[in-house]
Every structure is written in C-alpha cells, then in structure tokens.
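Input record (one chain):
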Amino acid sequence: MNDKLQLPNLDYAALSPMLILFGVACIGVLVEGFVPRRMRHTVQLSLSLLGLVAALVMVIRQGSKDVITAQTAVAIDGPGLFLSAAIIVLGIVSLLLIGERTLETGGAFVAQAAVTANTDADRDQAARTTGATEVFPLTMFALAGMLLFCVANDLLVMFVALEVFSLPLYLLCALARRRRLLSQEAALKYFLLGSFASAFFLFGIALVYGYAGQVDFKAIDTAIQNSANDDVLLYVGLAMLAIGLLFKAAAVPFHVWTPDVYQGAPTPVTALMAACTKVAAFGGLLRLVYVGFSRTEWELQQVLGTVAVLTMLVGAILAVTQTDIKRLLAYSSIANAGYLLVGVLAVSEQGLSSSMFYLVAYGFTVLAAFAVVTLVRDADGEATHLSRWAGLGRRSPLYATLFTFILLAFAGLPLTSGFTAKFGVFAAAIDADQTWLVIAGVVSSAILAFPYLRVVVMMWLSEPGETTPAVSIPGAMTAAALVIGTVATLVLGVAPSVLIEATEHAGIFVGK
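The corresponding structure, as predicted from the sequence alone:
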C-alpha cells in the first residue's frame, strides 16, 4: 500500500475567528493557574474582550467571499459570517454582564463551585469572597463552539461543535453565587436533557450516513436526488437531527428545560444563552434546511410547521401563568423560537434574511431585558417574583421606562425592533404560501402581549409596597450592556435598513 494519509487543507485566515477564541480560552485556563487571584478578574475580562474584538475584526476582513476548507467540513459563506459576527457582538454585550462585580460583593458567580450549598462555607463565600473567574474561559469555549456550529458543513463537525458549546454552558449554569441549590438543579436538568438531545443527534447522523454514505451536506443533497436507498433511513435520521437542534432552540416539545434553567442559572449566563445560543441553534438549523435537506422541503414544512405552531402557542399561553420574571422571559424565548421557525420554513432568500435579522434584533432586546433584571435587588439578591415589581415605576422611573420599552418590543409594537423582525418573518412566510403559520403567529402574539402588559401595569399603576425593592445603581459594564441593547432595539425599529441590507447582502449558503 503506497497510499498516504492526506491531511486536509486548512484556510487559517477563514478559520481565524474561531481559532482566536479557542486560543483565548486556552490562555484563560493558564491564567487561572499562574496569575494571582486578586488580578485574575481584570486579566480574564480584558483578555476575553480583546479576543472577541479581534475575532470580529477577522470576520469583517473576510468580506463576502465563500470558502470551503478542512476538505468539505467547514463552509465560510455570507450567512455563516453574518451569524458569526452576530454571536461575537452579542457575546461582547453578554461578557459585560458576566464581568460585572459592583452590583454585589464578588459578582454573580460562586467563588468555589465545589462548596456545599446552604453550609456556613457557602454563606461565607456569598457574603465576602470574590467570584470565580473560570467563567471567562468557559464562555470563550462556548462562543468558539457556536462559531464553528454556524459554519459546520458536515454532520460530524456540527456534532463536535454542539458539544463544544454545550458542555461549558452546563457548567456555567451551576455557578450562581446565591440560590445554589436552584442553580445546581438547573445545571443538572440542562445536562441530562441536553445529553439525550445530543444522543438523538448522533443517532440521526448514523442513520443519514446509512442512507447517503456521506456526512457532508452537499453529498447528502446529491444522495437525496439520486439514491435508490430506502427513504425511511433518511426521514428517521432527519427527525433525530431535528430533535437535537430544536432542543437548543427551545422549541416545543423540546422546551421543558428552558424555564427551570433560565430561572436557576446566573442571570448573565441566562442572557448569554437567550441571545447567543439561539443564534447558534438557528444558524445550524438554517444550514441543515437550506443546504443538506432542501430537497425534503415539503416534508420539513409540514412537520416543522406543526412544531412552530405549537411553540408559538405553548410559549404564549404558559407565559400568561408565570409569576417569576425570569420564567416569563423563558416562555417568551420559547414563543420567539416559534416565530423564528416561521422564517426558516419560508425556505427562500427572504426567509433566510428575515430570520437572521430576527436573531440579531431579539438578541439585543433580551440582553437589555436581563440587564434590567440584574438591577432589581434586595438583601437576598435579585428580586425576580413579579409581585416584587409592583410600583417599581415610582421607585425607579428611569429603569421602569426602559423595561417597559423592552417589553413593548417583545410584544412587537411599531417603532421597535420586535415589530420589524416579526413583520419580516411573517412577510416571508406569506410569500412562501405559509399563511397558516402567520395566522398562528398573530394569534400567539396577541396572547403573549397580555403578560408583557401585565408587568407594565404592575410597575406603573400599583403602589410600591414594603417589599418593593430598590433598583441598584448599575456598574459601568451593566450600564453599557443596557444602553447597547436598548439603543439597538430602538434603532432597529426606527431605521432598520442598514441591518436589513446586511442580511440581504449576506446572500445564500454556499452549496445551496
């Protein structure tokens, strides 16, 4: 045998954004081992922000050229670059919330993750000790995995990327400084259910490989067109792949982890998941639908359309019953996953463009929402029960006004990014003759407006009680995150043309 192992050709310039983030994450691990504890927070935060800015610069330098590298495993194209830039920018804003240390002693994260909950040592670390800085390299690993997930061009690389960004998130969810048992419970639920979803995804890969004989999307698309193999393998495999992706997207019936995890995780981590993980999940789903399985369009629209309707309605209806602000935002996130599926199922350039716009618009809005949540506090930490928000408009009219605007954006009122985003995905669905999805979306939007307006009424028309907490003065990083999210929500509602043009200029996936 004279055959030699052929190493794949790698375009390091095209891969540089994710390589930078992986490198920063590895350096962050070394910082934990060699830098004195008192200096770690400043070093880790600075290193992480510089790494994200450098990765963003490299994404912008890519331009609009299409590159397929690592054989056919990674596809750097217009939508992949746009989604990568979105993850990085939203990651920077999330990192500002993660790095905040002035709202409470030591920040939102536990000092020693191994400390037993509700012990004297646990109470001592909650009162005095500086929070863990391991969260920064974990966040960098998660964001790097998300970048790879959006540009993965075969199923195996997509699975590896899925695990790379999921495992750090499981850990991050367990690191809350306060309410340690709730945080650990959330992490355990997320880990167990996420493991099942990953197993489904892996079994789906095996079945699709059995059908097509390949795992890259172009070969799968060709096999669907020409293969004489039994289609049962294809459709069962596709269903299992969809389960793995819809779990990350928090779509019904794979949404059950979302409320508990959103409530139990440290709020900055919840913000990271709500914004960046949703972009990554839908980035992978878009590439799967538009490139690998575009020839099964009709079957996908029927099955995923049903999932979209259930997601919108279940998210909206259950949001009405919530009494905790973080759980309310969780069910809002579920409903928004349904609206995004409406855009995905248009299976057109307009559907792709409107879905990418929606991901960015929703990401900024939800980050601003969780930034406000971190500010409403009492002696025990964040006051998330809705009854505690009664009369907040009189205690702190500025932040109540900002949160009102954010909730109106979630409701989709004009002059907010929420209206522009929903109008885009609904218009794309109508053009694709998916009017039934739009009808369900409008109905669910009307239902979902009620819990949003209920919070607004509580803040402004209720008298502040003895249990109404004060709003903490935000630190510079939380204030920056709140300003960025709120301004983006306003600008994308009043003057969305720049971002719309960017999504349209991103074009279509390479290989489509």
